[in-house]
Amino acid sequence: MNPLLNPFTALPVLKNYVLDPGRIQRLNHKQLEKYRDKAFRKIVKYAYTVPLYHDKYKKAGIHPSDIKGIDDIVKLPFITKDDIRKGFPDEIIPVGYKKNRGHVICTGGTTGKPVSIYTDFPTMAKSAGTILREMKFFNLNWRKSRFVHIGNFNQYRVDLITQENFQSHLKSFFSMSNQLNIDVDLPMVDIIGKLDSFKPDIIMAYPAIFQNLAFLKRSL
Fold this sequence. Notes:
Layout: H1 7-18, H2 23-26, H3 29-47, H4 51-59, H5 81-87, E1 103-106, E2 116-119, H6 121-137, E3 147-151, H7 158-170, E4 179-183, H8 188-198, E5 202-204, H9 207-219
Parallel strand pairs: 3-4, 3-5
Antiparallel strand pairs: 1-2
Helix pairs in contact: 1-6, 8-9
């Protein structure tokens, strides 16, 4: 079933797309600070339900009630990549989390060993909301502007997981003809050919990809 047809899933997504993108314009500085502190407290409270974070916080003598706002971030203990690697899978998810409803995603492992975590449909939807805010800021229309995403579509990479488990559901409601995903592993010449053919208004990629594309484009 398409998650967007489920009201329990669709309504939070709709709120994220309709109300959240304009928060900076609606709220004054003090209101934004209040929202920031509230959001931070919510994050810490959620983290306390995750065994890895719960144990770290208890050893540090920290309880969510001790955290009043972002200024208290200095009270929190550090969580390292190695902690997450060692804790995967059960120590890095909240007690009661339905792993069958989530998707494992991992980093590229450029530092030696990949870091694996879980994501799910609501999380992917919120991430897409960030892109909408950026497009609105630059006066781009998400339904009309043409944009390309150059990403890693190997197994367990977030780009592939998002394409298969989030973007695929949007096709039932919106045309995706103004969007193009390009695999970063393609030869740079092929990537430039696709860009020249698609003529995007915006390109999303890794910094190194932009550098390589600019160098090759100038040399052609």
